[in-house]
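Weekly structure sync - notes
Attendees: PM, LS, DV (DV joined late)
Agenda: review two folding runs queued last week.

Item 1: First target. Sequence and structure tokens pasted below for the record.
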Amino acid sequence: MNLSQLPTPCLLLERGILIRNLATMRDAIARHPGVALRPHMKTAKSVEVALLAGERCITVSTLAEAAHFAAHGFSDILYAACVTPEKLAAVAPLNAAGAAVIVVTDDPGMAAKIAAEPAPPRTLIEIDCGEGRSGLAPDDPTLLDIGARLGSSLAGVMTHAGHSYAGRSAADMRAIAEVERNAVVTAANRLRAAGMAAPIVSMGSSPTALHAAHLDGISEIRPGVYMFGDLFQAEIGTHSLDDIAVTVLASVIGRRPDRHGLVLDAGGLALSKDRSTEAAPKDYGFGLVLDTAGRRSFGDTIVRRAYQEHGVVACDPALPFPDVPIGGRVRIAPNHVCMTAAAYDRYYVLDGGDTVADVWTRVNGW
């Protein structure tokens, strides 16, 4: 099966680029002795990708992911969102069946509920290192209360520097990584000073994992988007445009030479409406249009408008109108690959050509 035979829109994954990206991150983490890589599978949601990543400890963002990976032999799983009573109840049978799902909380009442379980799961306390999403400040008095309530189920602390996406240089990322590291290590040391155990000190985003000057006091790091890359990560220096492993294959359904534009069958659902590059140095609209080989043959040809099933493309004014007929195929590099991939249940895997080498399934839902 080749690209001309695939239904569109669909998701393409270049295996060679994926393998290169995985190696780049492994090498970056290897600079920090004693720090484990716990890759976040929220982007890939694929057992095949996790096996290529080569780590037996992983991070997930949903219980559906936790159950799926546990069923495929992964046991050491961090469920990296604050747990609720209902979701805690769903973790119990996974762990009873042999998994070792770790949960997260930042709430004293939830800590008490976790400790009251017949077999309490290992639990991390979430620390806010500056993103302002969830978690406690490192110096919050509630930290010690939560730790005491968790008792023997306390396994450490975790944080996530999502605000690293505001950085625009390697120096920015190093500075944010140090703030992230210091916040979670400070919290761990407070727990230890109060006589509590904190063996796991977990941090991580792809930019800070790659650029951290040192990771003293950190036990593990949890990058995720680095596996596939996207336009926004390329803009903030996590990787180059040539390191984007996932693209959307779309068909041309309209030609508008009078407007120097095209219409595609990939719109807001197929591409997502994430506009992260709007705040980056270069605005890629809803995605950059590539040829079927994944090359930038069309220059700055960009999906400028996204309706539910229509993508309206503005072709590069410096180049001739693209010679792509109705039904012709193009590939679109995504703004935010995590959001884009969420619409699909599989990857059509390529090995550098136009022939599909494999099909890998994704686990979706919650």
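Item 2: Second target, run right after the first with the same settings.
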Amino acid sequence: MPSLITRTRAIYNLGNRATSADENATLDALNAAVSKAIENYCWRAFSVTSLDELYPGNGRRELVLRHYPIVSVERIAGAPTAVLRVTNASASVQRATVKVTATGLELIRVASGVSTTNTINFADQVTLSALVSAITALGNGWSGAVADASFNSRASADLRALQGAFHAKDFTPELKVHTEELSSFTVDTEHGTIVRDAGAVWHGGLHYWRVIYRAGYDPIPDDVQEACAQGVAQLFWQTKRDPGLVSEAIPATISRTVIRDMPPTVKLLLATYRNWRV
């Protein structure tokens, strides 16, 4: 995750003071930490991020995505369909699993207490039929099959992670692909909503729709940058003194407290960006 502001922007809220190499290292660490804290507080990524999410049907024309504003929609597909079957039938294997990762398939077998992992990359086996051949070529009880010949040329990378580490010892789990591409829709970029054509609704059950899109801000809004800079400045000055010191009077009055929350001004700046839909 990139930081929300640059070191130069952080130093601006420190009165443009000249900073040492050690202070620069501290600022970079604080910048990363405060940026992450702000995104956690607002339940959203601010920088433009690529997202691959599943949604259920809601019976309405509008589908509200979890992140916004939308920069682009790369793909919308529905109807998760079993396209690939994988099994391990070796008599010497006591346990076997198959798992879809972001980049390929991970096949694990356990024989006499020894675990062996084989990884097949989608980039090396670009179609489902090629993936099946690579699975079967592993030997040691592994075999694969495409559920229907019409799926042979489908992209192996269309298998979505994470589907689970499925039991495959003498059992045939089915790996799924969203096979029905949505060809017409309207995108409300600002509000993060995708609207179906008149008369059509988002039908289907759990995880029926797969939406691949990019969302976030470029550049980061000024008020979010100011919130981050204020948070970094507060923590930076804390490194320069007793972190619990609030006030000290001579001869003998000292007051200490522990910082337990974001400064009110930071919360105020971020109020409109909190993502209540997540």
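Discussion on item 2: The longest helix spans residues 21-42.
Action: LS to circulate a short write-up before next sync.
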